[in-house]
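Example 495, ligand beta-D-glucopyranose.
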Amino acid sequence: MYAFKKFKCPDYNSNLGLFLSAIILLKPSFADNINGESFPSNFIFGASTSAYQIEGAWNEDGKGEGVWDHITHVSNISIADRSSGDVACDSYHKVDEDIAMLKHLGVDYYRFSIAWSRIVPNGNVSQGVNLPGVMYYLRLLEKLERENISAMVTIFHYDLPQALSFPTMFIDENYNSLYVDYARLAFLLFGNKVKYWITFNEPQGVCTSFLEKYSTKPGTDSYTCTHNIIKCHAMTYWMYDSDFRDDQKGQVGIVLNTNWDEPASQDAKDIEAAKRKLLFEVGWYAHPLVFGDYPDEMKTRIRLYTFPWESSRLPKFTDEEKSLIKGTLDFIGLNHYSTSLVSDAPDPGLFRTYEKDLGILKTYDPSWEKTSLDWFYVVPFGLRKILNWLDETYKVPIIITENGYVEDGSPFLDDDRRINYYQTYLSNVLDAIYIDHVNVIGYFTWSLMDNWEWTSGYTQKFGLYYVNFSSPTRDRLPKKSVAYYKKVLKTRRLV
Ligand code: BGC
């Protein structure tokens, strides 16, 4: 859309005036591309973090070792700056400061996660609960409530207790009950202060990137891991439903990560590959949890790439399991950052992994704005497209649980590119709501503050607030985007 649609020309008499107004008329106007509607009054806004990325205090007050403590202490060669989250943002000691930042922003919700090994040091509830860890989350929830900020809590955000690890408990179904016991404990202790529960953050990351690297059976374990996580989710959902929902009145969902995948060409194979990517990433979880089984496309493709004398590497749900898992999402949490172009990959040969079953190649349009991460481009229309796809496919309310911009630390506080990112992505959320009638009910930024960004360590920053990681006091400072987000939340509009 160009400026002449809305721009009212000033009354110039001189030729210079005409010349200038002609230039203004032809120049694409940033503001004009932005949706001018207000966010619905019941739309919720928030900011997100996760325990390992911000808390620090990795071994204080009885906390058990988590898998990331272990990885970063035993061999940190896979971490860009060889760092760890031992101190991170020191949020364990800075609850008041974190809450003051949330309050300043004016968010309706704070999304944070519980570190399993902080409240259950070796992962098994029957072997002991750590009271100081419990008190930390109770205090956080109480203070949030006092400031009128509601809580969305992630039960599991990548940080498995080390005692249940290597490579992960989720490849053994016998361990599922440990997750469900832990979730029950979380509902019992904190549930009267939590409106939205997330069982798992991005389980596909747990079952692919992490697992495929360390497993001796890649291409089999990934599917087993997902199979068990789906059952853990469903058991937890029904447990909440029967034992807690009436009193606590919360909602239970899962968070899935998906960038949008645009076919790289109009070739039928590329169109098919882009669809396959969505089904292997989102459908792998959402199809079972909404419809009761894996997408047919996944079943057929994995069968095709399994040796004829073996049973498919994708496990099957029994009829009983299908009815257990079906209809267990009150909402879908969407973590969305970027978009890629997808084409069909040539046949990979005999060796099978999840990636090879998926069989795609990714590229990027050179006209898209690049960020400091090689997979991350700024493509605002991708958010609108994935919202539409989710809504059409699953018809379950959607909450955008993470969306945000990355940079490598420069510029320091003047993060205009982040403001541009939020403005254009949020505009696409409004388009999805008002033009496409998508049922999207909330938006959370990633992240409240710069934090420990997994294998990127402290080299990549997603925060609205800057954190000084060289200072022992981990001082926080607002970036320019704080004022921007605050204004959006106050006015509930973008322009
Ligand atoms: C994860 C966050 C992570 C963010 C940015 C999401 O996939 O849930 O923990 O920091 O992406 O990479």
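Summary: The pocket of beta-D-glucopyranose is lined by residues 50, 53, 201-202, 257, 335, 402, 446, 453, 462 (CB under 6 Å).
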